[in-house]
Structure of Ribonuclease:
Amino acid sequence: MAVTDPTLEIETAMHAAGARFVIGIDEVGRGAIAGPVAVGLCVVDVTVGAHPEGLRDSKLLSEKRRVALAPLTAEWAVHTSVGLASALEVDRIGIVAALGLAARRGLVALHEAGADIGASVVLLDGSHDWLNPALSSPLRVQTRVKADRDCSSVAGASVVAKVHRDSLMIDADSKQPGYGWAGNKGYGSADHFAAIAQLGATDLHRRTWLKTSA
């Protein structure tokens, strides 16, 4: 199947229907066994123009390309932010609630940066609205399967979230070596599980997710 670039077609339709801003949202690190879950948010309006050349869902890009595109995406968008929920929070409240918590933190950061959340529609990757249950006031949310592939704002959100989370895991690897986080980014590779068996789990591990006891 050929890979196609995302477009602003969906966002443009939302603007035409009355949304001043569209907030593309995507998550990164949902399936990891270590590190936070990260939620990227990318705000666009009718003035943003074409997205940076080569922007795609972060899973379709090399690490080098993602790192290059993240600042370009931040410059292109009206606002971007990344919200996090820690491994401990994932253990305490579960992954879906942790996604909502991370997104809420990202929305607060957007608000503090001057984004008009109330005049926005959220374009959420996937088929399930996990965002509104985490909010005290509901937002207008439209879910879309493969939005990270098809919609520029969500692709942008995926890139900024992935680069931000990867940088945290690379930094953590330098402080707590032995788990290979700079390479596996906290996902459950065979070498990662072997390291846990040898060294034990850390505060960055989602202990309820581990198949090997600490």
Remarks:
- The beta strands are 21-28, 37-44, 79-85, 120-125, 140-144.
